[in-house]
Amino acid sequence: MFEQFDILSIFIRLTMSMIFGASIGFDRSKKGSPAGLKTHSLVCIGSTLVMLTSEYCFVNYGLGDITRLPAQVISGIGFLGAGMILVTGNDRIKGLTSAASIWFSACIGLAVGIGFYFGAFVATILELFVLKLLSKHFSTQANQVTIDLYIEYTSSFDLSSMILLMKNHKIELVNEDNHLLKNLNVKENSYSTIISLQISNTMDESELISLVQNIQGINCVYNIN
């Protein structure tokens, strides 16, 4: 492993980690998650760089334990993941999948950094399989999947358009949690809501987010699953 620690190997590992992270992030961004392509790519590349730095210090200077720095990545990434998790007013927890995906990307980056390419590749394929297929085909209802959306809107929000959208696409409202946003930069009161929608597993989640985003009064929409 260490005899191959050269410029080409470093370039290959960093590039592979970028590709693996981007592939996971692309899937998350399509679903409207705030942690998308850029976030997952940076986490994966950064983890690989930490692993490479640890190897470099060990090989060239004989310093310390090669696993010490990578271990800090595993524990430290929890701070980023914690920022993805929301607890709503009715004690429902949102964002666990996004937090787990961020942590998983860091693990893939470390695997690439140590040269465990096959393991990183298989893990990436398995994660994409879980994110894309399992959530749709093993939902609580055979032909439906629940999507949690965080929405910011103003008082000009057109509720009738939202109701019409749900009716046309046979979307069911499962749960809702509203609260006032304290934003000093906005003259008009802004509001936020977290809604759980039950949609057909054949419906594209990115299409749904785009449709909701186009409703009058909607400022932004994120998938927080």
From TrEMBL:
Topology term for the membrane: Multi-pass membrane protein
Coiled coil: none
Cell compartment(s), UniProt: Cell membrane
GO annotations of cellular component type: plasma membrane
Transmembrane segments: 7-26, 71-90, 102-131
Protein keywords: Cell membrane, Membrane, Transmembrane, Transmembrane helix
Domain MgtC/SapB/SrpB/YhiD N-terminal residues, every copy: 14-136
Keyword ATP-binding: no
Pfam families linked to this entry: MgtC (PF02308)
Membership in a protein family: Belongs to the MgtC/SapB family.
PANTHER family in UniProt: MAGNESIUM TRANSPORTER YHID-RELATED, PROTEIN MGTC
Name of the protein this chain belongs to: Putative Mg2+ transporter-C (MgtC) family protein
